[in-house]
Structures are given as C-alpha cells and as structure tokens.
Amino acid sequence: MKILMFSHDADIDGMGPIVLASYLYNQPGDQIDYELVNYKNIDQKIVSQLENGSLAAYDMVYITDVCPTRDTLELLDREQSLKGKLMLFDHHRSSLGNRDFGWVDIRESMLDGLKRTSATELFYYYMRYAYSSHWENRKLFSPTEALKQFVVLTRTSDIWDSEDPNFNKADDLAELFNQIGSDEYIGRMIYRIRKDGNFEFTAEDLNDIAKRRKLIEDACVKAYDTMRIVNVDGTKVAICDINYSFKNNFSQYLRDHSVQADIMAIADFNRGSMSYRTLSQSADCNAFAKKFGGGGNPAAAGSPITDELKGILGLTQPGE
User: Fold this and answer.
1) Is the model's pLDDT at 31 over the cut of 60?
2) Banded pLDDT at 51 (limits 50, 70, 90)
3) How far apart are the C-alpha atoms of 274 and 42, rounded to whole Å?
4) How far apart are CA 288 and CA 306, in angstroms?
C-alpha cells in the first residue's frame, strides 16, 4: 500500500503518527511518504498535490496533529478520487468546528473526558480498533509494550501533564526530538517501538538529551534577563527572546520563578508564527491567539505574526 501523511512539524505529537504508521504498514510493498507541515503552509501543500493529481495515487492519506482550513477540507471532501482514502486526527480546540466531516476525528479528550488526548493517541486507537475493519486483507495490529509506552509518553509531553509520574521521561523524549531533528527522531523511534520490553533510551539518546539540557539551561538564564512584559487588553504577556524550540522549557522556568504574567509569547520569524504558553491558571492561550487569527488549546496556542501583532507586542524581526 502507498500511504501519504501530512503531519505537524512542531513537536513529537506530529512525529508520533508517522512512527506508528511505519509500524502498521510494514508488509512487502508498503510505502509511507510524509510531509511535515504547519498552519502556515498546510493548505498550500494539500491543494498543490490535489491539483497535480498526486494525492489520488495514494491508497490512504492521513492528516495528523494539524487541521487545514474549512475551504480545504470541503475541497478534499468533494474529491471523488479520495473517497474512502482520507482520515484526519487532531486534538486542538481551534479545530473542533470541523468535526462534521465523516473522515475526521477531532477531540480534546478521550471518551471518559478525564484527560486531554493527543494526535498520536488518537491515531493509536484508530490503529487498534478501526484499522483492521478498514482493510480486511491486512494483518491485525499487535502493539509492543514499547509502542504503547511511546504513545503515553508522547501524549504526556504534548499536553504538558507535569503531574504524571513519567513526565520527566516524556520531556526528555521531546528534547531528544528537538536536539536531533525530525527525520533522525522518526528513524530512531521506528526502531525503538519494534523492540520487546519497555521503552528505554539508548546511550546515544541520553548523550543527545544531556547536550540539549545544557543548551536549555544557558538559554533560559539569558532570556530571563531580557524578558519584558506588556499589557494586551488586560492580559499580561511576557515577551521572550529565546529559541522557539525552548518554548515549553522556558514557560516552566518562568512558572518556577513566579513571573507575574498571564501568558508567555515567543516569536519564530522563520515560520512566521507566535507561540503562546500559559503562566497563570486563569489565562486562555486559545482565546488570546484567536484575536490574531490563530488558535490551539487553553494551555498552548499559536498565531501568525502579522504587522498588527508586531505593533501590539513591540516585535522587531531580525534585519529590520
């Protein structure tokens, strides 16, 4: 089978479904292609491949941890060559309005509603309970213990469940991705989840994680000294100059230092996007991001960097 995946490029929850798909589609002749995308380019990527006919050549097209615009979803839904070939899995609150398509699974939490979910977890349950009925001639999905633990660690990191007893290991997994990059991470995890026993880091992994931790420590100290706080319609926003991939680490650093702000904001001018993280319990990043054409979850969200936003937050792009 020939599989195409569009998945979020930002973190391990975007990588997770690709790793799981590589475990699932492992019979002779199976081929998995993937495109790492973000909210700025996903519509263009999908529409381009739809118009040149390349999407129709795939047996299945998955969209994970990211949701195109309503117009693009309607375009895909009308395409006859893709009937029965599309599935979308997302967990962001900003995507909930698109749940009315039959091939879309968008939810913030699992059925019990007790804990927020992730795209990797949603794809995992699809693999376990829906996949075998979708393809009658395929082998049943039989996950290893390492694979199941990989799914839980990915979700724990993505929803930032710092109360989870395995949170530190989950955070190490995220930092491993940030240190080695998407393709290397996907390759290592495909190998790791196939092994028997528990999910464990290798010596090489631990060395890469240690390097990353040193970078984070030095960057947080420097960024804390240059941070500034602005008031945006009653919301205190901490504007931070730090590597975009350190966003979760620095938000925790600010909480640990009891910074008097509601939301942390970090700019990624290369992607043209802002990332927001909550610092106070009353803050809602999703509501804040929506004011500027973005969205996400209450604890974490993002929005495009517009001229209006640059003016409000006092942002200056390097080189300007």
Assistant:
1) yes
2) very high
3) 17
4) 14
